From TrEMBL:
Pfam families per the UniProt record, alphabetical: BLUF
Domain BLUF: 9-105
Domain of life: Bacteria
GO function terms (MF aspect): blue light photoreceptor activity; FAD binding
InterPro entries: Acylphosphatase-like_dom_sf (IPR036046), BLUF_domain (IPR007024)
Protein name, entry field: BLUF domain-containing protein
Length: 156
């Protein structure tokens, strides 16, 4: 039996506590700014990612070449909007699960059912989120968004 072929394509999942404004309008503005900035950086680094914001927690899946993912994570680690950063998973992957440089999924009335079904918040509060739960929620939110835009058939 041959050993598995190594790839430089990796997936990193981390979670952190967010240092963002408490009032909803300011918080939404801050998340929008993070999204715009991250999209540009990720496009330049050929990174795809999905950020989930659940209460005062951030969970992100970052995909790309090993060095680019490492540099991106180092930049995030230095960002004062994050504290108590912890890596949940770091592994090689054969292909990407996400289609855009940066997508944000925030609990809202439109996504409430997906967040409730995932049950991520209690895991975050205990500091024990599971990579499979995070990944499943992110791919579900991505699929839901693409379906609403009528483009889900392009990525099957």
């Amino acid at each position: 039996m041959r050993p598995a072929k190594r790839t430089s394509l990796v997936n990193l999942i981390y979670f952190s506590r967010l240092n963002l404004a408490a009032d909803a309008p300011s918080r939404a503005r801050q998340i929008s700014e993070i999204t715009k900035h991250a999209q540009k950086k990720n496009e330049f680094s050929v990174i795809t990612s999905f950020l989930i914001v659940e209460g005062s927690f951030a969970v992100q899946i970052i995909e790309g070449e090993r060095m680019s993912v490492n540099e991106t994570f180092q930049r995030i680690s230095a960002d004062t909007r994050h504290r108590d950063l912890k890596i949940v998973e770091w592994r090689e992957i054969n292909k990407r699960a996400f289609v855009t440089s940066f997508t944000t999924g925030v609990r809202s009335s439109a996504t409430e059912i997906h967040f409730n079904k995932a049950g991520l918040l209690p895991m975050l509060q205990r500091g024990t989120p599971k990579s499979s739960t995070i990944h499943n929620l992110a791919t579900t939110l991505q699929q839901d968004t693409m379906s609403k835009q009528g483009i889900d058939h392009l990525f099957v």
